[in-house]
What does this fold into?
Amino acid sequence: MKHMKFMKHKRTKYIKPIESSESEVLGQLAIGEYGRLVKIPDGHHLSQRLRDLGWFPGEMVRCLYGAPLGTLRAYQTTGVTVALRQDDAMQIFIQREGGMS
Amino acid sequence: MKSKKKVAKSVTVALAGNPNVGKSTLFNTITGLRRHTGNWTGKTVDCASAACRWDLSLRLIDLPGMYAWHEGEQVLTEESEALRCLRSEHVDAIVVVCDARALSRNLFLVLQLKEQLQLPMAVMVNLCGEAREHGMEVDRQALQEHLGLPVYSVEAYNKKEVRALATDLLNLPNIPCPSVDLPASAEQAAAIAASVTRRLNRQESECSADQRERRLDRWLTGKISGYFTMLVLLSGILWLTMVGANLISDALAAGLGQVENGLRQLCSACRVPTLWQDFLLGGVIRTVFWVIAVMLPPMAIFFPLFSALEDLGYLPRVAFLLDRPFARCRACGKQALTMCMGLGCNSVGVMGCRIIDSPRERKIAMLTNSFVPCNGRLPTLSLLITLFFTFGCLDAAVSALGLLLCLCLSLAVSMGTSYALSRTLLRGEDSSFVLELPPYRRPRWGQLLVRSILDRTLKIMLRAIQISAPAGAIVWGLSHITIGGLSLLDHLSGALQGPGAYLGVDGVILLALLLSFPANELFLPLLLMLYRNGTVIEPLSAYAKLREVLLAAGWDRGIALCAMILVLFHFPCATTLSTIYKESRSLRFTVLSALLPLAIGAALCFVFFRFL
It folds into this structure.
């Protein structure tokens, strides 16, 4: 339940809790795990930016490593590695995958 | 006759593409210019244009990186700058530079541009070598067929290949506009990318190059190793700078001293009046030489080393490591990047703030950028540290440590100010942000050395002559015009003595700070000139002489420290202020950005002087 720690200092920006029904969110990926993007909510600040970077549904994402301090984590998709704060990663829906297909 | 005709029908080609694909590198190779390049997203934030060095009828425009074509939506500052350029300039054709490793998102932009702009286009696939190292290969022919556009596969720094490309570019406008048959969708781009990219080694999911990158990443962003490496790298660079600068400075001072003697003899031989001789040699020439001898060596060493880190792709990792502290101050990790650029020049740093998405955080970064000592102030600091805070042994190491402390102080004050600002003037939400971590690339040392030394040297020389010569003349004039038995200088510094007394410095230091408003490099030469009443600054010589001058003026460590604090924290130079005005388009903001550092510097000095 390591990720629960990050939930605690969620800032006031997104009050809406995540409906954790069927799909998981990117923030729940542990380091080294893979996931397939399911949905980036349209209203999200970063949705446009992430799409520009090639983050589309169906794309495989791997959580590479986390910053030693704070909540930044590096995620790798084809050809690009980006770092996202945990707050933002909690808004992106994925489906966990066992390994590289 | 023929050349005239050629110039008349010149061809303008714009270089577009995603960030960090090598547009500026290609631009440099074709034009022979030395635009700053670096291995991270957002290095280039403005447009530039120049003629091709092989054929003057080809003109190139280098655009800032753009991810995609967003019209009317909330766009990034650099993207809108690119669009503005594309609209306002006359462009005959476009070359979209692509990164072979991230072809799908690069092709998305290609498709969009093809749809939006009715212009002849070509695609250049860059970094194929790097892609091959990572087990990927792009089929140029297939890509060309898919897109219906000419596709080149060229390494942007390879002169021979690029030259061939440049000749082809001249014919580009004659190629008919591409027909829009492909939908500009991401899916389409991904499909094309998938069909033209071939994996070289199918068995291994991760090749050795990938693994090497991961290992390096793990080390550079590790919990202890990350911060440790950061400190070691920074202090190592500072130490090398101090050691090298001392050597070069001495040699340079001796050489320039000889030149000055020669000039003096020449003047007496030509029977130039003594007053003029004094004015030219003692005022103008000496200030210029001083600026060169003191400022040039540290810069010539510091910047190649720093650029090497930049080329490696290390700077975004610093932002990655420092995001937490910045987030605590309710600012953004990318501020670390703009601060690094500020080390070179605050004006560039302020312009670099365009990479920060949130307007609130961008303003904070712009306001605090001048806290970072730029290349005009770093040598001043290092000299003062060497003169007053070393003990005769391990000089270079001690002064490097001192400089490191200065940088830490400026980082701490930046963060504190960011925190205070976001609690008071610039309240607002934290924004989300995406930080791209570029692949590591080996710095190309030869080019890097030539580029940064020649580029910087030339620039500093010019700047020294442009700014320090008139400044030297003015100071000389001030000290020679007397009103009521006292020179103007004495009147001015006397007037500043009052405020200086509160800050633990004398009026002359304040006057020198004020007079160095056009360029921070001038502070130390002006200071010395002021102390020696304009007529005789000591001829260029060893540091010991300098120390004598300052000691004779009543300096001690306390004064030196206060002076250093003021050098670190005072109003930004004229160039930076004008950039801030251009970027913010607000007079109030510009005034604030001048007063805020001054207030902080004054407060620090006051506290230090009164209580310590």
Residues 71 and 445 of chain B are 40 Å apart (CA to CA).
